[in-house]
Specification:
This protein is mostly beta strands. It is built from no helices and 18 strands. Strands 9, 10, 12, 15, 17 and 18 form a 6-stranded antiparallel beta sheet that branches.
C-alpha cells in the first residue's frame, strides 16, 4: 500500500544542499519549493545553458562574444561555434544594393557597383565582381538608310569624265539615285554602297560618280567598259565607298551615270533604249554608319 509523507520543509544539516530520492516523485513537482536541481558539468554560472545528455541534465558553459549555438556533428548535443561557421551573417558596413556571395568559408559582402556596371565572374573564376559594360567595338552598325527603286529613268549628259584624268562633275551625267543621311556621331565612318544596271548612248565608256550635296567634284568615281564604241550596251554597276562622318550634319548623296561623250543615260534600261526587265529591275543604295 502506498504511503504518504507530508512535511513542511526538509533541511540538511547545513541547511542547504541536495536530497536524493530512491524512487521518483510522482506529480509535476510544482509543490516542491526550495529544492535545487542536480546538474552535471560543474558549477553553474550566469549565461550557462542546460541540456539533457540522455542520462541527466548537464551544463553547457556560456559561449564567448558573438558565438552561435548549434547542434554538434553527431546531432547529440548543442555546442557553441564561432561566427565564421555560423552560416549567413550580416557583414559589417552593409549598405543598400550590396550582395552576398560565398567565398568557400563564409558569406561575404560585395559592395554595390556603380551605375551601368555589370556583374561578372573574376579572372580566377572564384568570385563575382562589378565590371564596366563591354563595348561593341569598331564595326558595329549604329544606323543605316536605304534607297531602292524599280523606276526607270533617262537623262542627257555632257562631259568626258570616263576617258580623261578629270574628276567627274555634278553637272555631268544623269542623276539616278539620291539618299539622305544624318550621322549620329562625327567620329564614326560611313560605308556607302549600291548596285544598278544601265547604259549610255554614244559609246561603251560609262562612268559612275558618287556626289555629296552640291559639291561639284565627285567624292568617288568608277569607270567601266562594255566594249568601246558599243552604244547603249547594258552594264551592271556596283560601287562601294568609305567616308568619315566628320560631323552630324544632314547630307545628301547622289549617284550619277555618264559617258565619254555627250549623250543619253538609261537607268534600269538601255540596249536600244527603253526600260528592261519589265519593272523588276532594281537600283539599290545603302549607307551604313559604323561605330569607331
Amino acid at each position: 500500500m502506498a504511503s504518504t509523507l507530508k512535511v513542511d520543509q526538509i533541511e540538511t544539516p547545513s541547511g542547504v544542499g541536495n536530497i536524493s530520492f530512491a524512487q521518483p516523485i510522482s506529480g509535476d513537482g510544482s509543490q516542491l519549493t526550495g529544492v535545487g536541481l542536480a546538474v552535471g558539468g560543474g558549477a553553474v554560472v550566469a549565461g550557462d545553458f542546460l541540456y539533457h545528455d540522455g542520462v541527466e541534465w548537464t551544463r553547457l558553459p556560456k559561449g564567448t562574444a558573438a558565438q552561435y549555438l548549434r547542434m554538434n556533428a553527431g546531432a547529440t548535443a548543442p555546442e557553441w561555434i564561432a561566427t565564421s561557421g555560423a552560416g549567413i551573417q550580416e557583414p559589417a558596413s552593409s549598405a543598400a544594393g550590396d550582395i552576398l556571395y560565398y567565398d568557400g568559408s563564409n558569406y561575404v559582402r560585395l559592395a554595390k557597383g556603380t551605375a551601368g556596371q555589370q556583374l561578372a565572374i573574376n579572372a580566377g573564376a572564384t568570385a563575382p565582381e562589378w565590371i564596366a559594360p563591354a563595348t561593341a567595338g569598331a564595326g558595329k552598325i549604329v544606323k543605316y538608310e536605304t534607297f531602292q527603286t524599280t523606276t526607270y529613268s533617262t537623262g542627257s549628259f555632257t562631259g568626258t569624265g570616263s576617258i580623261s584624268d578629270g574628276i567627274p562633275q555634278l553637272t555631268e551625267g544623269h542623276n539616278c539615285m539620291t539618299l539622305a543621311f544624318t550621322p549620329t556621331n562625327g567620329s564614326n565612318i560611313l560605308m556607302i554602297q549600291g548596285t544598278f544596271f544601265g547604259s549610255v548612248s554614244g559609246d561603251g565608256n560609262p562612268w559612275v560618280g558618287l556626289f555629296q550635296d552640291t559639291t561639284a567634284d565627285a567624292i568617288a568615281a568608277w569607270r567601266t567598259t562594255n566594249g568601246d564604241s558599243a552604244a547603249n550596251t547594258l552594264g551592271m554597276y556596283s560601287f562601294f565607298h568609305q567616308q568619315s562622318c566628320g560631323d552630324t550634319s544632314a547630307r545628301d548623296y547622289h549617284v550619277r551615270i555618264g559617258g565619254a561623250t555627250t549623250g543619253t543615260a538609261y537607268f534600269l534600261g538601255g540596249q536600244s533604249s527603253g526600260r528592261k526587265l519589265g519593272g523588276a529591275g532594281t537600283g539599290t543604295m545603302v549607307i551604313y554608319e559604323l561605330e569607331v
